[in-house]
Amino acid sequence: MAYVLAMDAGTTSVRALLIDHDGQVIGVANKEFSPLYPQPGWHEQRSPEIWRAQLDVTQEVLKSCNLSAKDVVAIGITNQRETTTIWDKKTGEPIYNAINWGDRRVAPIIENMLAQGLDRCGGKTSGHRYFADRFRKY
Q: Alpha-carbon dihedral of residues 7, 56, 10, 26, nearest 10 degrees?
């Protein structure tokens, strides 16, 4: 039989669900992790911790259902809105922690951009303006 693996990386945990051909959830695994708050208004996560937790719950749900990766025919993945991670192209390692969607460190920059009317320029050809500030320090 073929199964679908649904994976979700949330703000404080990751989960994996296995779904059978009839759409029934036959297995669930969940693992929590701790967010980081290095300064007021900053909200980060360790990218390797998210990745490791997602691998762990995937292996756990497969094992609990006596299945292997070969039994999975499709994977659905969701994540945390605009959480952003930068990876080193050569090493595959993160350059910095994931900056969580709730992070407020660039609020003054955004307020300045809005005051200048720059919000009307974003999103025309390149997508959502939310990401315009994310890599400013890099």
A: 40
- Report the 10 Å Cβ neighbour count for 45: 21
Alpha helices in 65-116 (DSSP H): 107-115
- Write out the residue range of the structural domain in which residue 96 sits: 3-105
Q: Cβ atoms within 10 A of the Cβ of 44, count?
A: 19
Whole-prediction pTM: 0.76
Q: Convert the pLDDT of each residue in 120-131 to its tens digit.
A: 766 555 555 555
In contact, 5 and 54? CB cutoff 8 Å? no
Instruction: Record the tokens describing residue 8, joined without a space.
Output: 């979700």
User: What CATH code is carried by the domain that includes residue 85?
Assistant: 3.30.420.40
